[in-house]
Specification:
Blueprint: H1 6-25, H2 32-43, E1 48-51, H3 58-69, E2 73-77, H4 84-88, E3 89-93, E4 99-103, E5 110-114, H5 121-133, E6 135-138, E7 141-144, E8 150-155, H6 168-171, E9 176-179, H7 185-195, H8 209-221, H9 226-237, H10 248-253, E10 254-256, H11 260-276, H12 284-295, E11 300-301, H13 303-308, H14 312-319
Parallel strand pairs: 1-8, 1-9, 2-5, 5-8
Antiparallel strand pairs: 3-4, 6-7, 10-11
Helix pairs in contact: 1-2, 9-11, 11-12
């Protein structure tokens, strides 16, 4: 990929993004906002947590995105008996009586970690290392994972028996927490019509792994004005109760706020959102476009917010005013 300058590269990224969107929409109906957020997080080098009831095509969504991105895809069903070696791989004794490492399913570009809250903390921690370090350790040896590497984990919000809620440190590793809602009535009509007939539409590969890596580096070079940077950092600081930036609503309803990683993701997300919409530098609207999905899993409400029926999204909306 050769561009004369970064402006040309941003133009090319916007065109690619529109192509990707059209191709994914051939298979996935009525989830446009979700698709856009997943694409933003891929180009920002982030990971996504998808929260939604069963049957909302979470697996199909990830499968389709992997197809159009031309990436190696693996699905891991997380269960209470899943061990770290089941996902990272294990040492075996080969026919020459020498130890050989057999790679687990984490050695792929896109990982769908299905029902991540069903597996014990030990296995969640193994995934955490892969997400953060882009490498895994087995028997004292480190193995680099292929780039790009992207984890899309799913959680079922209604079935809480026999689950292990993700610790805050691991939640913080996810760039976005995305809520999947039921499809609109007309979209559901299309879904049911197409899936109960012989209709078949397959997504085509639109972009290569090398192009994705190139665009991920491009996003880092996108310039950002100091006032937009200040807005992003201040917005994250506003979520921290008892600090000088905390407004009344934070001190009243929040027990814990977002850390510096939220500020980093707000800036990266705003840069990516701007670039995907053909802008060469983000503005405050770009920060606001990604803020809810970035902040909602990083702030913890107190008992008063629960008693008053105040949701996390409502608090974030107030902080952006």
């Amino acid at each position: 990929m050769m561009f004369n300058n970064d402006t040309e590269a941003v133009d090319a990224l916007r065109v690619k993004h529109d192509e990707l969107l059209r191709e994914i929409q051939k298979v996935i109906y009525g989830q446009d906002e979700i698709i856009k957020q997943v694409l933003i997080s891929i180009f920002s080098k982030g990971h996504c947590l998808l929260i939604g009831v069963p049957g909302l095509a979470k697996t199909l969504l990830v499968n389709t995105i992997a197809q159009v991105l031309g990436l190696h895809y693996k699905r891991i069903q997380f269960t209470p008996d899943l061990m770290p070696s089941d996902i990272i791989g294990t040492e075996i004794l080969d026919k020459d009586r020498a130890f050989k490492f057999v790679k687990g399913p984490l050695f792929a570009n896109i990982i769908l970690a299905d029902e991540i809250n069903r597996t014990p903390p030990k296995t969640q921690a193994a995934l955490l290392e892969a997400m953060q370090e882009k490498s895994i350790t087995s028997a004292g040896t480190s193995y680099k994972l292929d780039e790009p590497f992207f984890v899309l984990a799913t959680q079922n919000p209604i079935e809480q028996e026999g689950t292990y809620p993700l610790p805050e440190a691991q939640l913080d590793r996810f760039m976005f927490s995305i809520w999947l809602d039921y499809p609109a009535h007309e979209d559901e009509m299309t879904i049911v019509k197409n899936t109960t007939s012989d209709y078949h539409n397959e997504a085509m590969n639109i972009i290569s792994a090398e192009e994705i890596l190139h665009f991920q580096e491009l996003i880092k070079r996108v310039p950002i004005n100091d006032n937009v940077l200040r807005y992003a950092v201040t917005l994250a600081a506003k979520t921290r109760p008892g600090t000088k930036h905390a407004p009344d609503i934070t001190n009243k309803y929040l027990k814990w706020g977002a850390g510096p990683r939220a500020s980093q993701f707000l800036v990266l997300g705003a840069k990516t959102h701007a670039a995907l919409h053909g802008k060469y530098s983000p503005d405050i609207e770009d920060v606001e476009a990604v803020a809810t999905a970035i902040l909602r899993h990083r702030i913890i409400k107190n008992y008063k917010a629960e008693a008053d029926g105040i949701g996390v999204d409502d608090i974030i909306a107030q902080l952006m005013k």
